[in-house]
Amino acid sequence: MTSADTAKATRAGARAAIRWRKVMILTTGQGLSLTGDYVLLVALGWTAIQMGGAGAITTLMLAGTIPRALTLIFAGPIADLAGPRFVLLRTTSARVLLLAAGAAVTLSTDWFWPLVVVAAVEGVLLGMGSPASQSLMPRLAEGDQLARANSLSAMVTRVAPIVGSPIGAWIIATGELWHAMAAVSITCAVSWCAMFVVTRGMTGTTREPGDNLLRRSGDGVRLLRSYARLRWLFLCAFCLDLAFGWPIEVALPLLVDGRGWGVGSVAVVVAAFSGGALVAGLLGALLAHRVPLFVRLVVSGVGIGAGILLMALMPSVAALAAVGAGVGLMAGLNGPAIVTVYQQASPRARLGTAMSMLTLASIGTIPVSIVVFGGLSTVIGVTATWLVCGVVALFAPMAAVMALRQPVPQSEPVAQTESTQAPGAVVDETPVSADSPPAGPLYVSRKTVQLLTDHCHSPDERDTQCR
Fold it and tell me: Hey, where are the domains in the chain?
């Protein structure tokens, strides 16, 4: 084979390893949906403040976050059993109806409690759909191409609050809450169309005898206990989220105010961090497959920890923003790397369950971070507590090193093979690389069959020994 033929085969293999058309449709739909989420978040939050002040917005936030976290316990097993298509089409269509109904209610009444109901049901639907949504990329890309797809998705995630938050503020300033709800219901409808295209053929797993949802609700913990690679990656993500929560949510305004820099400095630092993360997401979408995994997962983790330490010691707003941009750049590389390795190490038949644990680590860690480090800051001060957060973040690359030292688990089938499916069933379009064997419960190469046949000399031996 000539070098030209080799290059052509390599390009063909890369195209087979990722379905760019569906990846782009998925990221576009998810980006639009996330942008709508931030529009709704700002509109609901501002309305709650106008109705009841700090107590109202606290009630509204708890009404959304607690049901979402609790739903994640069952959402992963449901996504595995029913399949992402079943879950996402139903949860997204339910969100469309919920927000349309909410818009009609808020148009006719100024009561606060309907907003709490909308937030609670919205939290349940988001929690139910999150594991299924996060299990889509491994079905559309594999190997190094999965890192590129996840980097693109992370970049869209960073863009959503930058675009959605100002739109939400503009809508609530110039209009009313029902306008925001009606607009977000439309973005959810467009997202439903994207999910309808992308998830075609994505079915669930076969239910085993005696299997039930209550029993499988504990599969997430059992996965972490059984798979060392997943366990160390979970700890890596947990340490980073724990270290990030308090500094970003609480300490940054306190640090800026204590040094007399003005409230505008908070916006400058946050914008610098977001800009760094956006650049990393763009670079990852283009070049993640060319950057060594150790750099994206471990070196970037060290950079995040060191950056958090330096941020507490910066003498000026410009220096703080520069370091914040560097931390954002490292976080933009590290986040997709954790998700990619975690997805690749998860059993394919329980990918939804595995991703629900990773999501729960992120959602559940931020309140813990605020409580723990907030209490510590009252004892040792804001700057010293910020330094403690940096030390905690440095445990993440150590956990990442331990994760990379663990063997990659063998993959498991996602659904039945074509030979056992009912006539007319849609086959999953998961990409298969050129080196992968054909799908099926057992693959034996033609060469192996020939060796077995040659070993068995007589027909009797073939019948008794080589059947």
Answer: 18-142+160-263+337-380+389-404, 435-467
